[in-house]
Amino acid sequence: MALTLTREQHLELYYFLRLNRELEDQMARLFRQNKILGGLYSSRGQEAVSVGTAYALGPGDWIAPMIRNIGALLVRGFKPRDVLTQHMARFTSPTQGKDGTSHFGDLKVRHVVSPTSVLGDLIPVMTGIAMAGRYLGQNVVAMTWIGDGGTSTGAFHEGLNLAAAQKAALVLIVENNQWAYSTPVARQVPLRDLAGRARAYGIESAIVDGNDVIAVERAARKAVAQARAGQGPVLIEAKTMRMMGHAQHDSAEYVPKEMLALWKQRDPLDRFEKFLTRNRLWDAKTKKEIVARIASEIRADVEYAENSPFPPAELAAQGVYCEGCHTVEADWKRPKQEVMPPRSNVKPEWRIRASGETKAPRHSVHGVHSVKGDQAGAKPKSQGKSLRSRPSAKAER
Amino acid sequence: MALTLTREQHLELYYFLRLNRELEDQMARLFRQNKILGGLYSSRGQEAVSVGTAYALGPGDWIAPMIRNIGALLVRGFKPRDVLTQHMARFTSPTQGKDGTSHFGDLKVRHVVSPTSVLGDLIPVMTGIAMAGRYLGQNVVAMTWIGDGGTSTGAFHEGLNLAAAQKAALVLIVENNQWAYSTPVARQVPLRDLAGRARAYGIESAIVDGNDVIAVERAARKAVAQARAGQGPVLIEAKTMRMMGHAQHDSAEYVPKEMLALWKQRDPLDRFEKFLTRNRLWDAKTKKEIVARIASEIRADVEYAENSPFPPAELAAQGVYCEGCHTVEADWKRPKQEVMPPRSNVKPEWRIRASGETKAPRHSVHGVHSVKGDQAGAKPKSQGKSLRSRPSAKAER
Amino acid sequence: MAETTYLEAIRQALFEEMDRDPAVVLLGEDVGVYGGAFKVSAGLLERFGWERVIDTPISETGIVGAAVGMGYAGLRPVVEMQFIDFIACCFNQITNVAAKSHYLWGAPVPVVLRGPCGGGVHGGPFHSANPEMYFVHTPGLKVVCPATAYDAKGLLKSAIRDNNPVLFFEHKFLYRRIKEDLPEGDFAVPIGKAVVRRQGRDLTILSYAAMLYTSLEAAAQLEKEGIRAEVIDLRTLLPLDRDTILASVARTNKLLVVHEDTRTGGIAGEIAALVTESAFEDLDGPIRRVTSLDTPVPYAESLENYFLPNVAKVVAAARELAHY
Amino acid sequence: MAETTYLEAIRQALFEEMDRDPAVVLLGEDVGVYGGAFKVSAGLLERFGWERVIDTPISETGIVGAAVGMGYAGLRPVVEMQFIDFIACCFNQITNVAAKSHYLWGAPVPVVLRGPCGGGVHGGPFHSANPEMYFVHTPGLKVVCPATAYDAKGLLKSAIRDNNPVLFFEHKFLYRRIKEDLPEGDFAVPIGKAVVRRQGRDLTILSYAAMLYTSLEAAAQLEKEGIRAEVIDLRTLLPLDRDTILASVARTNKLLVVHEDTRTGGIAGEIAALVTESAFEDLDGPIRRVTSLDTPVPYAESLENYFLPNVAKVVAAARELAHY
Ligand SMILES: Cc1ncc(C[n+]2csc(CCOP(=O)(O)OP(=O)(O)O)c2C)c(N)n1
Ligand SMILES: Cc1ncc(C[n+]2csc(CCOP(=O)(O)OP(=O)(O)O)c2C)c(N)n1
Ligand SMILES: [Mg+2]
Ligand SMILES: [Mg+2]
After folding, report:
1. Quick one: DSSP state of residue B338?
2. Which in A260, B35, B185, D121 has the greatest CB count within 10 A?
3. ipTM of the complex
């Protein structure tokens, strides 16, 4: 397949992949030195998913990473020091030590929503971001990730279903790394492909080799374009493998060695290095430069983090409420008058059907999409007479 | 299609359909007389779903009805007086006036679980019943219902997914009556057929004309047989129409008149009467007898209900805890020794794959089914080498 | 001027805030075409259009999560729960996401979650909840329980303008029973301020929402017996108005708390702790509470009446306390 | 005899109850092959087989609902929450189904819901919850918070044998830190009974779970100052053991409540209400409480230490109270 990215972009992808890997390796060392509090989760083997998907977004778009998506945070502009200070609970971290791991965000500049630990939480939240984005005329896409295990949560269902009903510009990456803690996918749901989850919502889906950063980026770019065009949410299943335990404490003996051996051959960094070489996108010198740059960045940021103070104890009591410390302000990209009376009045938005008998409210003022009224009509299969009733809602009560 | 039921069964179906209709008509009168507390919900036009599905069950099977499934309660052996005293909040009601509407059950004899008002609650509960039934060797099926609207709840997803993962003998009837209160199906989910929900779980599904009691019964019977045979949960979408408002207070002006007119022609009682006549399963005299029987039963039970006392006030303070007033006892249909050490020991249950490299615990001891280990294996589409990794779980830790 | 019902006051607040600020949107089940189960949002779709009045699927977790996301994007969403009982279905989004967001990540959640609560209308065990204490016990939330039409309107405006997640509990018994003359023009009632509804020297009755009226009626009866009860309407349960509570107890030296919520773990406990730790010397008698029973809300009238507090129970408790 | 940890005591209770009664089954995320995130169920799958030790999908609502259904069918399921924080995801099944079932429909729910709660191990804001009060405020549930290995084992046995839904909160700080000699053979500890852990005449310190140890340590320090604190371990929060609490206050006339849960709406409030309404005359001083702050649980050690109660805070409050 022809390359769709420039040489610089390919090298940037490599930079992020490798930065992701090296940063996490560094954190594992810090963990063993007891410099990281709580748990440490690894995305080894899955870096291509985080990096490739986030790379497909535009600057105004939004992400909400999960615990194994440090790569996405890096692509989005966060620095190793942000990740390091977070894990080391320093005052200089994005949350000043109040929260750990990848639990931080930036609503104003980088458009990153902080995750919680509760699986599924982010899907409805990002649906809301996408709905707000459309309302504000921003033409943005919201992207988030969920593990294979997380697709069994009610929040996954409610969030994705709402996104589908609203045709929200949500791109959901199902990161199928074969395991939810010790539980293999087959014990969570009898589906061969988790992309099949999408069928419950009538939305687009795709399956991609999650260890091939180019394939991931391409699939994500397509999905982002579809979502941005108003075609509704898209679910991408990225097949990959969790190469470490659930977290540092877990030696993952329940994972067969053969399985690890098989996936080790498919390491996303190795493969991308070969790809770059095969396509003559770099040479040994370029690689060396990137590696050196990463090493020095990480070294500097580890030093920064280690020299950072812990938060002052009294901080614990502060910030429960927003008392004017933050502003709530929407970034309007359309005239506000469009949504204020009299222009916002619902009347022009009611669609009069040719038959004249039903009228259904549409979902989008921009004509980007409409919900077909007859989708809800009953077509019983065993009856002779075909029936096409249309659900509707009258404006008058 | 050839008849699969006897004449008596057909007449019994008619009896239940008509009893359902007349009982609800009677309740509407009582409601207008202010003799029914709170709300009153109607299943007019949907009776064939409640009656046809419940009729397909065996005596040991379980149901959990929703608010519009009074027909199922009647099939299951509850009497009009039970329904009437419940709605009228009498001391003689199954809940002694503590709960209303169809919120009552009978765990010991009729195997009926009481619904709550919270949509979706029953699906995981009935999954648990099915799991317990298998564990106890009972060979029973658990059936419950959910509205089109209720399929958007997280509980629907978690319950049905768990049932699928466990291959539980659950039959879930999605009663698509086109409306969730004032919201048409198309605004809830962009699916033409709600049976599509099943695809997220890799389970069987069917679509049936919910206004054709024979078709409903047949589809349910098949589903019950599949579930009982250990093939996992089955979802049936019954297409029907809510012919009244959401409840008595709702005049449902948002429903187009044309839609109601269309569905009125498909009234399940009318159609079944014609069916009975066409198939010479009854004559005018038989019909008259059934009608008279129903009238007298309802008359007697209304009298009973109206003459029933309201509960004594102090009852309100009683019964929060079970202090020995109820026994908790499982109905074992297999030797308990099978699940007690040493026989319950997991070792014999580990399946050694031919290849020898993976071992996965199976879900069923009876050999009814097994989860294929390689379902969770990754088969990335864009990569050359086909990969068949198998998730597994080792016994040793 | 025509009197305005409690329900209509809430509707007016929504109207006026949506008129004032295009960032305010409403979402929930059947809030648009139908105007909400209690018709609180009747006419809003017609005025503001479907982009701002959004009928959702039946997905409380989805809805609340989406509202949080909208808030992150700078909107001020108002979420309607069709009945407040169903808030149990989005408990996680409220307590783990909305409540913690500002403290942990500096991300304010300018979301209002409102819906009909309370009993007395024979709604039965799933349509009568008073879930306030679950949220009073969750740092990061604000909890508002208006009793009057004026407060309902003014507090909802404050809630919408607040940068924090506010739970706004509308007592459905009051929806159409309470009517008041409301002033013209914009007014807001601050969150976190209780108000003395009736002055008295013999004891303080603390209450809110529907129980305010029970307490006032009891106070009127008590007056005939020569007992002058001070009646305080808490209005906001979180943050509690310590000053007003303690000032009243300093005057009356006796405290009775009346709430419709169930007894164990109800707000009376928090108030008892507050008063005994901060004003122990002011107390001349035990703190008493009149509450609902520790049971689900039963359906039959006889049972629900027994379950709920009423004027007689309040009078009896107040009398005993006054004579202590 | 080797000492048994708090964690191992819980594991023993599960083992012995499953050995005793084939109706007892365990379900939860990673409870089987992995033996649970904290290894509480290690070895259970091997002994009892996959039919009784069930690894589930990540679906707290699904799991709890299924447990209720299993209970209806006559089993006695034990559900593990991987961390108790995720109980927020099944709040509706617990409060609207399990809690109400017996009262409304006469359908007992013999289900135990257990999992690791509590802070002090730098688990951060989503792995340190103390959610007990949400459930203490829900009629129909029982809430158990053991502090010792003996109680953990004996109370879990009682919980499994109980016909009602019991929430069994295991404090993860204690899992491996608490070790005791346990007696051989079957023993059960009754639900609903507190116990005096240390006798004293000057004040009563009420506490439970990890805070029991903080309180005992404080009492030891106080003794050096001549202050004799009585320390009570509540063990069960619902139903509360009124008699033990009131009897102690009648002896000491001063009450300090220590809980790790956040302050506003914590159990100290309920106890303050109970004591002031039932034993007002016994009180010779204000009821004091030492609790966590009203914030989410922060992550950094400095912050979490500031957030949590500790010995110094308990000593200071007790000293002030003793000298009141
Ligand atoms: C709602 C919820 N339940 C349980 C957990 C505990 N938990 C944390 S990670 C995890 C496994 C997640 O598996 P998956 O979604 O596949 O993500 P992965 O760890 O493989 O990236 C579990 C059960 C949680 N965080 N949230
Ligand atoms: C979780 C939850 N949210 C909201 C409600 C309020 N409510 C009761 S019935 C209903 C509409 C149900 O629609 P559907 O599931 O299609 O069932 P139908 O009424 O058509 O039988 C709603 C929103 C509820 N009962 N439960
Ligand atoms: Mg996974
Ligand atoms: Mg419906």
Report:
1. G
2. B185
3. 0.96
